[in-house]
Each structure stands twice: as structure tokens, then as C-alpha cells.
Design goal:
The protein has 217 residues and is mostly helical. The protein is 88% helix and 0% strand. The chain has seven helices and no strands. Helix 3 (34-67) runs antiparallel to helix 4 (74-117). Residues 35-98 form a coiled coil.
């Protein structure tokens, strides 16, 4: 327990300082290596994508409820849809941030790995470690491409949602709702495509975590 308290304290203080290299060095001193950090960050990125899936689905549901509005408090329905849009935006920002953190620790890990390989004097061991490094890099590159591909689908959806929310804000009436109904089918298709891409990325994350937990550098 004391070890993990120390890890949490070091993590929070050094991340606030914004010095990643010092952060990695300090974490290693308490037995928490770059590989461990990478696995945790991939897990965090995966969980942020799962949260984004839920938020985008919720935003779509609230927009659907708004477009199907038939009497009652129109402004309340609009506000619910707007809140869900803003939550989706926040979730998308978190996904991007988490992916960036994965990329940061991956670069540090691979640089360290390559440097340490040069310090291995026995050729067979050096070759074996190089093969493991290349295998991990291939798996990592596939993972990040999948994450970034899913991430790239979010901005256009958010832009369409924002356009609709702003239009309705300025024209909150049944006629305005009717004017944007034509765009809804496209939005449904785009969110469905986003969720499929995120599912692929989540599967890649699970595979990568399993591979990292089953091998050592």
C-alpha cells in the first residue's frame, strides 16, 4: 500500500511540473517501469474510448428525442441535447489526451530499449531483444493507427452536432426542428461508424495489453 501511495504522490507532483523524463525516472525508482506505465496508459485510453462511445450514443438519443418533440417543454429538451453534446465533446478531448500520453511513454520506452540493446555484449541475446522490440513496435503501431482512425471520426460528428445545437438555439421552434431532420440520418450513420471503429481499437488495446503483460524487454 505504501508503495502505491508513493507512486501516486510522485505521479501527481511530477506531472504537474510537466517533466515527463523526470517523471519516468522517479517512477522507476519505486519499481514502476515504462512498460508498466505504457500498459496503464493504453488501458486508460481504452476506457476513455468506451466512455466516448456511451457519450456519443447518449447525445444521439437526446437529439433523436428533440427531433421527435411533440408538445411539452421544448427548451428543456434542447438543454438535455446540448448537455449531451458537450459531454461528447469532453469525452472526445479525453480520448485525444489519453492517446497522446500513450505515444509519449511509447517513445520513451522504445528509446530506452534501443539504448539498452547496445549494452548487451552477447550477440544472441542482443538479437533476441531486438526481435522483441521490433515485434512490440509493430503491435504498438497497429494499435495507435487504430486509435487515431477512430479519433478522426469524432470531430466531423461534433461539428455537425454543434451546428445543429447553435441553429436550434437561435430558432427554438418546431419549424427549426423540422429543418435539421434531414441531417439526422447522416449523423446516425456517422456515429454508428465511429462506434464500430472504436470497438476495433478497443480490441486492439486488449490484444496489446495482453502481449505487453506476457513479455519482458
Amino acid at each position: 500500500m505504501k508503495k502505491w501511495i508513493s507512486v501516486a504522490l510522485i505521479s501527481s507532483s511530477l506531472l504537474l511540473a510537466g517533466c515527463q523524463s523526470a517523471y519516468y525516472g522517479a517512477m522507476e525508482k519505486v519499481g514502476y517501469h515504462k512498460r508498466d506505465i505504457m500498459v496503464d496508459r493504453v488501458q486508460d485510453a481504452k476506457e476513455s474510448q468506451e466512455e466516448a462511445q456511451e457519450q456519443f450514443s447518449s447525445a444521439l438519443e437526446e437529439m433523436q428525442a428533440l427531433l421527435a418533440f411533440d408538445g411539452g417543454d421544448l427548451e428543456a429538451a434542447y438543454n438535455k441535447a446540448k448537455d449531451e453534446y458537450e459531454s461528447a465533446q469532453s469525452a472526445a478531448d479525453d480520448v485525444s489526451s489519453r492517446i497522446g500520453k500513450v505515444e509519449d511513454v511509447a517513445e520513451a520506452l522504445f528509446d530506452e530499449w534501443e539504448t539498452e540493446i547496445q549494452e548487451i555484449s552477447k550477440a544472441s541475446l542482443r538479437r533476441n531483444s531486438t526481435n522483441k522490440l521490433n515485434e512490440t513496435k509493430r503491435s504498438y503501431n497497429s494499435l495507435v493507427k487504430s486509435m487515431r482512425r477512430a479519433e478522426s471520426k469524432m470531430p466531423p460528428i461534433l461539428t455537425a452536432m454543434k451546428d445543429n445545437m447553435l441553429y436550434l438555439k437561435h430558432n427554438l421552434n418546431a419549424q427549426a426542428i423540422g429543418a435539421i431532420k434531414g441531417e439526422f440520418a447522416s449523423l446516425q450513420t456517422d456515429i454508428s461508424s465511429l462506434i464500430k471503429e472504436m470497438n476495433k481499437s478497443i480490441a486492439e488495446s486488449n490484444k496489446f495489453i495482453e502481449s505487453m503483460e506476457g513479455k519482458g524487454s
